[in-house]
Amino acid sequence: MYWEKAIETMSREELKKLQEERLRQTILRAAKTPFYRKRFAQLKLDPEKLRTVKDLQYIPFTTKEDLRQGFPFDFLAVPLEEVVRLHSSSGTTGTPTVIYHTAQDLERWANQVARCLYMVGMRKTDIFQNMMSYGLFTGGLGMHYGAEKLGAMTIPIGAGNSKRQIWFLQFFKTTAVHILPSYALLLAQLIKSEGLDPKKDLNLRIMLIGAEPHSEETRRRIEELYGAKAYNSYGLSEMNGPGVAFECPYQNGMHLWEDYYIMEVVNPETGEPCQEGEVGELVLTTIYRDATPILRYRTRDLTAFIDEPCPCGRLHRRITRIQGRSDDMFIFRGVNIFPIQIEKVLMNIPEVGNNYRIILEREDYRDVMRIEVEIKSELFFGDLQKLERLRERIQAELRSEILATPEVVLVEPGTLPTQEGKAQRVFDQRKM
Ligand code: AMP
Ligand code: ZN
Asked: Could you give all domains of the chain from N- to C-terminal order, each with its CATH number?
């Protein structure tokens, strides 16, 4: 049941000891990088004296902006000849943030991913199709090497090209996939349009869904469409990529591997620690990576931690599904709104299809939110009055969730633009 029983079920006390040992080494290593050397000097911090998890609080947060300003080498803690790969964050504009890895870093990362895959029941006998893009984005190679380490036959098909995806799914009787949740919904539609049933005509049993926020409702919908189990997979390139936190078979939050990271959840405004269950920003410190140590990284991802032990027996604490980012929130007529709230409502309405977008505009100095929603094709060509009632219902349900009234436009399935990478849902065209 466990990939590494001793570590996964380690007592909190032992885990803390291990963390402090690794933290100490990480801080000393970080002190060799131009960025942290300068930072420690400015604050007159002696890295030799920082020893416990508690001492971490003396070190200021590291932000994405710090990483950008430190481009290209200010965070590098080993000689360049020891680096064997670099990765970068998806969708960044301007200066990218790059993360370097030694051969050992990659080995550890592969192990971390294999641990996740084993946890959700993947085995050597699985046929694994990795539908994430290969390249700088970590979802491709990161998951790939973990799956190979596990021993599954891995198909590095990459993102997009749905016809070919479907052919491979059928021909090799693929049993497990790594897929964006938005693409899983779209692909199901395409599979059906080829006259196939994703549940009956495919062999999928495990789906690893992640890389973008999605709701419980979306997960359930994906599971129903494919007749498979879908597990939430969380990661970010600054912290390696996939494998940071992953759901176990209980699907009740994601175990964050605390032998690889020290986790904090803080109030995004004050930086103060949150209590269990309180939503805040996830802050992570790498403690098991040599080339690019990062201390107290502000992920901008909003979540809450769960202290209570999980029935699966793993004692690494869990985080709740990512509720959005502290920076993707938008303000509409004074109301703070997270796109995930809108998604939750829409995906819970059976008549709603699999794609939607949120457009924000300003008309006569007034904010207007238009939500374009694809609906199932049987309905689209049906009774107009029925359609209008459906539109009103969607609007009312949205209103009660987001406390603002959006315009709702129903559109035919397949008419909204789709992206190969992470779905872009919000189009903010307001001019400030
Ligand atoms: P990247 O560094 O390009 O891999 O992007 C990482 C970001 O993707 C994270 O900081 C999250 O905002 C988002 N992300 C990754 N996995 C998930 C997930 N399972 N649920 C929600 N958001 C996710
Ligand atoms: Zn568990």
From this structure: 1-327 (3.40.50.12780), 330-428 (3.30.300.30)
Cα–Cα distance, 286 to 105 (Å, whole number): 11
Nearest residue CA, atom 3 of ligand 1?
A: 90
For 295, the token pair is 């201390």
For 350, how many CA atoms within 13 A lie in the half-sphere containing its CB? 3
Residues 102/84, Cβ–Cβ less than 8 Å: yes
**Which residues does a 6 A CB cutoff place in the pocket of ligand 1?**
89-90, 138, 210-213, 232-237, 241, 299, 301, 322, 325
| Probe target for ligand 1 pocket from 116, 247, 301, with the most ligand atoms within 8 Å of CB | 301
**Region for residue 364 given its phi and psi (left: phi exceeds 0; alpha: psi -120 to 50; beta: otherwise):** left
167-191 per-position pLDDT tens digit: 999 999 999 999 999 889 989 999 9
- According to DSSP, residue 37 is labeled H
* Residues, CB within 5 angstroms of ligand 2 (ion): 248, 250, 310, 312, 314
pTM exceeding the 0.70 threshold for the entire prediction: yes
Interstrand relation of 366-375 and 330-332 (parallel, antiparallel or unpaired) = unpaired
Q: One-letter amino acid identity for 58?
A: Y
Number of neighbours of residue 289 by Cβ within 10 angstroms: 25
For 153-193, give the DSSP string. Answer: EEE---S--HHHHHHHHHHTT--EEEE-HHHHHHHHHHHHH
Beta bridge partners of 330: 337
Q: How far apart are CA 225 and CA 207, in angstroms?
A: 12
Q: What does the alpha-carbon distance between residue 185 and residue 183 come to, in Å, rounded to a whole number?
A: 5
Contact 205, 228 (CB under 8 A): yes
Q: What pLDDT digit, counting tens, does each position of 125-147 carry?
A: 999 999 999 999 999 999 999 99
- Give 399: exposed, middle or buried? Use CB within 10 Å, 0-12, 13-18, 19+: middle
Residue to mutate (ligand 1; options 322, 323, 328, 424; most atoms within 8 A of CB): 322
pLDDT in tens, 293-349: 999 999 999 999 999 999 999 999 999 999 888 877 788 877 778 898 899 999 999
Q: What are the tokens at 143?
A: 């998951």
Which protein residue's CA is at the shortest distance from atom 10 of ligand 1?
Answer: 236
